[in-house]
Amino acid sequence: MTNEHKISVLLVDDHAVVRAGFRMLLASQPFIGDITDLNQGELVSQEYERLQPDVVVMDLSMPGIGGLEAIRRLHKQDPKAVVLVYSIHDEAIYVERALEAGAMGYVSKNSAAEVLAEAVKTVADGKRYIEEQLMPEIDDVRHNDIEHYRQVLDLLSPREFDVFCRLAKGMNAHEVAADMHLGYKTIANYNTQIKNKLRVNTAADLANIAVVLGIIKP
């Protein structure tokens, strides 16, 4: 990136107030150029192709396909796409899943405003950026005796992982279907597939796995 070039950003978040705040924050930075925002992951591939932004700033928890699946699809469309996740989730498993899907960086929404700006600039320069406070979380997971759970969770697709997280947090299939804008039968099928892959039978089993991995608090 040259000194003259300003970073173009595609911002993806389903909350209008959040998008407005992010736009204001990023627009105040002298190295940020055009900013376009979207409210759902389904639109990312098409708009990315049209706009060719330098950085995609992506939320994870969105109705529909969700951020993880949107990242996976975008990375398949263009392996050089630069995605920075900006999420309320600061648990290690989310960071790792985002990086595995193709993200270049990860920042928590609890971080200071200047951290997001720094992260955008860093990933635009082709360098990975993970917020410093998230690193101990990742290290703890890697050195703990839960490797088995992580391995079985790797069997889940990004969409299945999104469904798993909702079910583990106590949502029923109807609630998950409404939240993800999918049919009840589709979620019921995902529920069965997830339990089969993880070799568990109940929602309590899913919750236990999520607790061990730090996805939900005990």
Automatic annotation (TrEMBL):
InterPro entries linked: CheY-like_superfamily (IPR011006), NreC/VraR/RcsB-like_REC (IPR058245), Sig_transdc_resp-reg_C-effctor (IPR016032), Sig_transdc_resp-reg_receiver (IPR001789), Tscrpt_reg_LuxR_C (IPR000792), WalR-like (IPR039420)
Alphabetized SMART domains for the sequence: HTH_LUXR, REC
SUPFAM superfamilies linked to this entry: C-terminal effector domain of the bipartite response regulators, CheY-like
Domain Response regulatory: 8-124
Pfam families: GerE (PF00196), Response_reg (PF00072)
PROSITE patterns: HTH_LUXR_2, RESPONSE_REGULATORY
Keywords of this entry: DNA-binding, Phosphoprotein
Positions where 4-aspartylphosphate occurs in the chain: 59
Location of the HTH luxR-type domain: 149-214
Protein name: Response regulator transcription factor
Species annotation: Methylophaga marina
Classification lineage: Bacteria, Pseudomonadati, Pseudomonadota, Gammaproteobacteria, Thiotrichales
